[in-house]
Each structure stands twice: as C-alpha cells, then as structure tokens.
C-alpha cells in the first residue's frame, strides 16, 4: 500500500510516498527514485548483525554500492559525538550532494541520520527504512530529525523530509516483545486523540498484535501512518495542529531527561505521560472517568507502565521547562476530551506543580 505525504503547498515541494508491505524489492525502489551509484547506510549494531548482509545484497543487485556506518544501539548514539562521526565517515568517503543517506534502523537512527543528511553539504538526499514498530508508525514519517543534548531530548534538530519511506513489516519478525510494546505506545496515542476506531480496533485485536499477526500489524501501521501523514500535510513544521502528536510527550520527555535517557524506553515514558495527561484533563473537566479508565486500561493491558516515577515536582517542572511548547511560565498541553478527540490548553507551571504534588 502507498500513502502520500502531500507537501506540494509548501515553498519547496517535499512530497513523498510511504510504502508499506512485506518482502519489498528495496533495491528496485531505491534505483527508481534516482540512486545510481552509491548510498550510505546508517544503522546500529543489532540491525547490521541481523540485516546488514541482506540490505547490502539488495543494493548491490540494483547496482548501488553500499557504504555502511554502524553505530551503537540505543539513545546513546543520538548525540553530537556520533553525528560528528557520521560527518567524518562521509568526508572520508568523499560523499557528494548527489549521493543518498539511508537510515536503516529504529527511531534513534532515523533522527540522527536525518539530521546528518539535513546538515551535511547543506542537505543531501535521505531515505527512511525503519525496522521497529516505533519508527514505522512515528519517527520515520514527518521529517523531524535531530539529536539530544545533555540538558534535554531533541533540543538540536531540523525539519528535513525524506525522499521516500519504505516500511517492510518483515523486519518486525526479529523485533523482541519489549521493543514491540515500546512502539505500540505511539499507536495507542493516535487512537486516543485522533481516531476512536483505531483505539477500538486495538482493544479488540490486542492479543493478535502482540503475537505479531501480520494482517493486524499492517492495519495499525497503515492507520498510524495515514493519520500522521494527514497531520503533517496540514502542519509540516509544527506551527499549531501538529502539536497534537505530542500527546503524552510533555511529561514523557521530562521523564526520559530525568532518567538521562537510560532505564526507561520512549514508549514507556510516553505511556505514563498519556495517563498523566488524561488525569489532568479530568481535573480540568474536559473528560470523565470513563475516558481515563479506557486509556489507562489499554495501556496496562499492553504491558506499558502508568505510574509516575518518584521524582520531585521541582525536577519534573525544571525538565518540562525545556519543552519546545513552553511560553513564559506556561506550556501548551495536549489534553484528551474523549477517546479520539483532543484539546489544546495553555497551563501554568504553578498549576502543573500542584497537580503533580497531589499525584506523587
């Protein structure tokens, strides 16, 4: 199946397709978009061990020479240190603007490789081939690229759209349950605030999804990508509406920062953030107990956490003050009004502090 990210209305038409299927002829597709000579494959150790030989053969069969840059697994790679390493390798290989960078891995690899592509030679061609559920449904689509800073997550980055996103669900065959659940949090997010039918589908088919039933996975990936593509079509650079995709992320990113990007996965932090946002919504009389309970129950049944870690309210507020949605002494929060519906609210940090104080 093919989903169009339509950015023809932007100053520079950066429209592209998202291809979703199994057993995709990746080499043929890459050749068709204009890769003629070589491509740099940015990947991580685990993905390279699993699929490096396969992707190398697929590119070679299309007459494309692969140049591999293999990075450590995990959030540690999303740093200025490894961004500089990518630059070093590109320069060493005399990489040209007409060449392509291919992000082959999960969300960390996609964000890092995308930012390298956006900044090297003021912009080189870029392709996303995600290999995790998280990157399939979220980070590979929409053009957000960047790295972390010791002070906070995603503080350095740029909007830079790929030429194409190729999602082959067969890569999920090797994904362990922890990583499957990690990515599943973002699928729940789409259903919770943007698509009630998706939320109900997840409730009904949760066991199949967790067993990696291909048809069920294809459905949630297709719906998630369609939803995100529609949001990005309306607001490419997050000037307003696209902020809805940050449901659960204000507290979630604060949690990741407080853990120094270790001991907690992105999906786990976002799940806690979604439950927190739903309770905040109830406190503001935007939704009732039923909405909070439905969301919290689905998150728990998916194997994701819901309890807020025992940091102090001061620590949470200080971490949230680095959020890009902060203005003066308040933050634009994405709240839930019912399953499938949302509302933006500008909340004072003093109010959030008091609410956290009562929860912790």
Looking at this protein, list some descriptive labels.
single chain, 360 residues, alpha/beta, Rossmann fold, Dehydroquinate synthase-like, alpha domain, 2 domains, seven-stranded mixed sheet, 12 strands, 48% helix
Describe the structure.
This protein is of the alpha/beta class. The protein has 2 domains: 172 residues, 3-Layer(aba) Sandwich (Rossmann fold), CATH 3.40.50.1970; 183 residues, Dehydroquinate synthase-like, alpha domain. 48% of the residues lie in helices and 21% in strands. The strands form 3 sheets. A 7-stranded mixed beta sheet has the order 1-2-9-6-5-3-4, with helices on both faces. The chain has a 3-stranded antiparallel beta sheet with strand order 10-11-12. The longest helix has 21 residues. The chain is globular, with a radius of gyration of 20 Å. The model has no long low-confidence stretch (mean pLDDT 95). Pathway: Metabolic intermediate biosynthesis; chorismate biosynthesis; chorismate from D-erythrose 4-phosphate and phosphoenolpyruvate: step 2/7.
